């Protein structure tokens, strides 16, 4: 696990944040963690999956991140938007994919939500923060209470 604050230069971050917060179409998805778990819903935007770009917003949002990460192979890139709740809810634990791969979370806004890794480590949501971790191990997300939304970009890669 590695945390990198101020991952993108300030001006580049502001451009990415602007697109993600105000231009992306978001799609409602049930079951935040494990399918069928019945936990809260969230909104999602798929940028890349199944070896294909899925979004016109891939280049302004994902490309600047990949230019730094430099993955050997991209598996998936998606945006997650969790609506605020009256108390912080912890979503179900899950793995992104069972096979060995790397995970990257990029936080778009600062809020009191967080990510909990398999070892219990809590990573706070701070705008322009990057979290590199093993997303083939159990982890979970949460909602937030102090902002309208909690937004991050989730990239799985090798």
Roughly how many Å apart are the termini? 15 Å
Write out the CATH superfamily name. q2cbj1_9rhob like domain
Work out the count of structural domains.
1
Q: Name the helicity range.
A: 10-25%
Q: Which structural class do the helices and strands define?
A: alpha+beta
Overall mean pLDDT stands at 95
Q: What is the CATH C-level name? A: Mainly Beta
Percent of residues in β-strands: 25-35%
Characterise this structure.
The chain has 158 residues and is α+β, with helices and mostly antiparallel strands. The chain has one domain (2-145): Sandwich (Jelly Rolls). Helix content is 16%, strand content 34%. It has 2 helices and 11 strands. It has helices at residues 10-22, 58-69, and strands at 2-4, 27-29, 42-49, 52-53, 74-83, 102-107, 114-116, 122-124, 129-133, 140-141, 149-157. Strands 1, 2, 3, 4, 5, 6, 9 and 11 form an 8-stranded antiparallel β-sheet that branches. A 3-stranded antiparallel β-sheet has the order 8-7-10, with no helix packed on it. A hairpin with a 2-residue loop joins strand 3 (42-49) and strand 4. The chain is globular and about 35 Å long. The two termini are 15 Å apart. The relative contact order is 0.25.
């Amino acid at each position: 696990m590695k945390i990198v604050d101020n991952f993108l230069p300030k001006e580049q971050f502001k451009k990415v944040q602007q697109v993600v917060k105000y231009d992306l179409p978001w799609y409602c998805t049930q079951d935040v963690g494990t399918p069928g778990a019945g936990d809260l819903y969230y909104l999602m935007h798929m940028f890349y999956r199944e070896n294909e770009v899925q979004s016109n917003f891939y280049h302004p949002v994902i490309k600047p991140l990949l230019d730094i990460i430099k993955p050997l192979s991209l598996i998936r890139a998606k945006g997650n938007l969790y609506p605020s709740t009256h108390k912080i809810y912890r979503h179900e634990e899950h793995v992104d994919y069972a096979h060995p791969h790397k995970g990257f979370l990029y936080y778009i806004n600062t809020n009191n939500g967080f990510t909990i890794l398999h070892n219990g480590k809590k990573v706070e949501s701070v705008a322009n923060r990057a979290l590199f971790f093993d997303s083939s191990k159990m982890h979970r997300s949460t909602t937030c209470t102090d902002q309208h939304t909690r937004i991050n970009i989730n990239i799985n890669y090798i």
